[in-house]
Amino acid sequence: MMLKMRILTLALFSVSWLVTLFTEINCEQERPKAEDDLLVLTVATKETDGFKRFLRSAKHFNYTIKVLGRGEKWRGGDYMSVPGGGQKVRLLKSALEEMKEEKKIVLFIDSYDVVFASGPKELLKKFQQSKHKVVFSAETLIWPDRHLEDKHPHFREGKRFLGIHWLCA
């Protein structure tokens, strides 16, 4: 079977920024998606207050959550001083490889500074309305190196820089 991936970003209420990412695996044809088709993946190595808020909001709106890296030592860098996140990408890659035969839509999202503001039905509706195979989160500011700003094209509409939480090669 042929593997297809879709990535979609939708706006969710976030304490410091809005970041989400969708991946659909092994979709052979376009069809309406049921709430059971959605799985939320997040990386959380510590049980912070923000993480607990995230889980409460997920439970309130009836999302299915899979936490990656729980209980592991964080080796992804200190995001305030140097670029990091390699550990997060490796955990996501491993999780996606494990489920490559499943027909799921996967929402990959931060959990320390995000809460859900609507349920899976609304999220899936917006996903389908986008009619795009790949959509990334976007931000107003470039981080961590603002000197690279001039190397990015300007847009009439929308934000200019890919979100810092996901790199797709």
Automatic annotation (TrEMBL):
Q: Which residues are in the PLOD1-3-like GT domain? A: 35-163
Question: Does the keyword Electron transport feature in the UniProt annotation?
Answer: no
Q: Which GO terms describe its cellular component?
A: endoplasmic reticulum
Q: Which domain of life is it from?
A: Eukaryota
- Single annotated GO MF: procollagen-lysine 5-dioxygenase activity
Pfam families attached to this UniProt entry: GT_PLOD
Which keywords does UniProt give here?
A: Signal
Residues of the signal sequence? Answer: 1-27
InterPro entries, A to Z:
Collagen_mod_GT25, GT_PLOD
Q: What is this protein called?
A: PLOD1-3-like GT domain-containing protein
Q: What is the lineage of its organism?
A: Eukaryota, Metazoa, Chordata, Craniata, Vertebrata
